[in-house]
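User: Some background: our group keeps a shared notebook of sequences we're curious about, and every so often someone picks one and asks for a predicted structure to add to the entry. Today it's my turn. The entry only has the sequence so far, pasted here. Could you supply the structure so I can complete it?
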Amino acid sequence: MTSQLTEQRILEAENIDIRKSFQHTGEIIFMSKAIENLQAAQRRAVSIRPKVGGFPYLAEVLRQPGVTHNQCSLPSCQSLFLTNDGPVVMQGALLVSNTADVPAFDREAVIKALRTDQAGESTFPEFLAASWRAGVVRYDVDFSARTVTYYGCNDEQYVESYPAVELS
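Assistant: Of course. Here's the predicted structure to add to the notebook entry:
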């Protein structure tokens, strides 16, 4: 009984809700409050995001429950979400499956990829692929400042602001 109480206190201290656990490959894995909140926000964002000009809505839905930054590395498509409840990492589909040269940073191609996505003419995976081809190796979304900074491998950068939006 004492070890169960100690384990529960540890889980509570680490912000893990023991009611939100699930079994995976024979191990019990616990879902933290940070993961639960991020996933709920992502589901909500998908349901309300307009096809054209939708990123500010996605960003606001993530910002409201305490997501402060999203740092994404390309071509691995690994996102690190910094939240008030703790950091969460999410692995997307790889853009490169083997050794590859890194494209040179092309500011105009980055802007073209952004405008195509903003017009609703590309999917998110297509946007990521176009960004990679434009030489973007990482980007950082600052949800408080409402900016996205795109970086090349030599620290070249392009910063774009996005507007505040009202959610209904």
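Suggested note for the entry: Residues 45 and 68 are 16 Å apart (CA to CA). The first strand starts at residue 16 and ends at 24.
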